[in-house]
Amino acid sequence: AQKVTQAQTEISVVEKEDVTLDCVYETRDTTYYLFWYKQPPSGELVFLIRRNSFDEQNEISGRYSWNFQKSTSSFNFTITASQVVDSAVYFCALSRAGNMLTFGGGTRLMVKP
Amino acid sequence: EPEVTQTPSHQVTQMGQEVILRCVPISNHLYFYWYRQILGQKVEFLVSFYNNEISEKSEIFDDQFSVERPDGSNFTLKIRSTKLEDSAMYFCASSAGAARNEKLFFGSGTQLSVL
């Protein structure tokens, strides 16, 4: 069975602080994909990144960076110099065949000015 | 950027009534999905649809649920006889392909409240 755990249900930071959102996953598959989605207050789920299980290179996109560590089954997401607009719920997800995503419970990030 | 649109944004219904949630996927996408999120809980997969057939469905997707692509643009989720526990946000999504690394584009959701 597949499982995604986001232990942090809610995080509150002050603008310009760095923040890391944790994601731990379980799967028996040798090939899999990991995703992060953002859910702003408007409600839609916005794709942020995908990573395949064979690519453990960290990725940076502007203020966002992702640290994939297969040895610890973790795919953590860091926002550098957070901004109020980063306030949202962030979901980590694991894909199965047929594009079924298994989502974590989400982390609500609140960035205060 | 192209987007998935869902209507209505909110739907209130009485228990036992039928509801139809509507979605317009991205026009050149071939794979369609419904997910739901009960308040405070995880987003859960319901069903995937391709070539006018269900590809995969979860155990949540029982006989009360059905999906349809009635024309070239709409994709609908029907709940035949709603229950209180069907209250949730329902998300439609689409993708160009079905590979595991395929990016899913989600709509803004329909908040269904069953009274």
Largest sheet of chain B: 7 strands, mixed
Instruction: Give the radius of gyration of chain A.
Output: 14 Å
Unreliable segments of chain A (pLDDT under 50, ≥5 consecutive)? Answer: none
Q: Estimate the mean pLDDT confidence of chain A.
A: 92
Mean pLDDT of chain B: 92
Structural class of chain B: mainly beta
Please bin the fraction of helical residues of chain B.
under 10%
N→C terminal distance of chain B? 36 Å
Strand content of chain B: over 45%
Q: What is the makeup of the main sheet of chain A?
A: 6 strands, mixed
DSSP strand content of chain A: over 45%
Instruction: Give the number of helices of chain B.
Output: 0
Tell me what you see in this structure:
The complex is a heterodimer of chains A (113) and B (115). In chain A, 0% of the residues lie in helices and 53% in strands. Chain A is mostly beta strands and 113 residues long. In chain A, strands 2, 5, 6, 10, 11 and 12 form a six-stranded mixed β-sheet that branches. In chain A, strands 3-9-8-7 form a four-stranded antiparallel β-sheet, with no helix packed on it. In chain A, strand 5 (33-39) and strand 6 (46-52) form a beta hairpin. The N and C termini of chain A lie far apart (41 Å). The mean pLDDT of chain A is 92. In chain B, the strands form two sheets. In chain B, strands 2, 4, 5, 6, 9, 10 and 11 form a seven-stranded mixed β-sheet that branches. In chain B, strands 1-3-8-7 form a four-stranded antiparallel β-sheet, with no helix packed on it. Chain B is globular and about 35 Å long. Chain B starts with a strand and ends with a strand. The mean pLDDT of chain B is 92.
